[in-house]
Amino acid sequence: MKIPKTGLGQKSLGGKPPARGYLDGQMLIASPSMSDDRFAKSLIYICAHSPEGAMGIVVNQPASNIKFPDLLVQLNVVPDRDAIEVSTRHDDVMVMKGGPVETGRGFVLHSSDFFIENSTLPIDEGICLTATIDILEAIATGSGPESAILALGYAGWAPGQLEAEIQNNGWLHCTADPELIFGEPESKYEKAMRKLGIAPGMLSSEAGHA
């Protein structure tokens, strides 16, 4: 796995667009009519949305057999001799499959109590994104954010693509909250649907979007 040391490296993430109506900080909820199997029942936190496209992190698909403490050792953030201690301190940092794009890169969604100048992107409602190894070092030493998840890869859309998918009933969306981002991944999808007043089991594949 590669965690970039030089920041996010994505032009569209350079700052939040000033216009209202964009989906920054919103949750995308895959509808039953989602045609892309990679995103079935996915919940995606939108980090950047502008006329140039969109970028988000899937927050409810755990990366199988990958533990955060093991990654800290593999990336030489901590030496092998500290592995047992790290495991007891950081097992609560979940590792997610963030999306199908650049799956070798790591992105940390975290609370806004941690910030690195020129590396951390503030998004909305106390949530930030950092994609440098410095945040992993901070977490390892106990000086990182209170809440965080590590995502491998991200979801990306070309200009106009996300808007078209929403109009074609591929996605619903709702406001984000810390529980939907940092809570137990198995229950996030249903919680997001219920936030819209929808019982997931009763939503047909022909449903429209909110």
3D structure, described in words:
- This protein is α+β, with helices and mostly antiparallel strands and 210 residues long.
- 22% of the residues lie in helices and 28% in strands.
- It has one domain (21-202): VC0467-like (3-Layer(aba) Sandwich).
- The chain is built from 6 helices and 9 strands, in the order E-E-E-H-H-E-E-E-E-H-E-H-E-H-H.
- Strands 1, 2, 3, 4, 5, 6, 7, 8 and 9 form a 9-stranded mixed beta sheet that branches.
- Helix 1 runs antiparallel to helix 2.
Describe this protein with a few key phrases.
210 residues, alpha+beta, VC0467-like, nine-stranded mixed beta sheet, disordered N terminus, disordered C terminus
CATH topology: VC0467-like
Uncertain runs are: 1-21, 205-210
Shape: globular
Distance between the termini: 37 Å
Name the CATH superfamily classification: VC0467-like
Biggest sheet features: 9 strands, mixed
Query: How big a fraction of the residues is strand?
Result: 25-35%
| Alpha plus pi helix count | 6
In N-to-C order, the SSE pattern is EEEHHEEEEHEHEHH
Return the domain count: 1
Judged by helices, strands and strand pairing, the structural class is alpha+beta
CATH top-level class: Alpha Beta
TL;DR of this structure?
The chain is an alpha+beta fold. Helices cover 22% and strands 28% of the residues. Strands 1, 2, 3, 4, 5, 6, 7, 8 and 9 form a nine-stranded mixed sheet that branches.
How do the helices and strands line up, and which of them pair or pack?
Blueprint: E1 26-30, E2 43-50, E3 53-58, H1 68-74, H2 83-90, E4 94-97, E5 101-111, E6 120-124, E7 127-130, H3 133-140, E8 148-157, H4 161-167, E9 171-175, H5 178-182, H6 185-195
Parallel strand pairs: 4-8
Antiparallel strand pairs: 1-2, 1-9, 2-3, 3-8, 5-7, 5-8, 6-7
Helix pairs in contact: 1-2
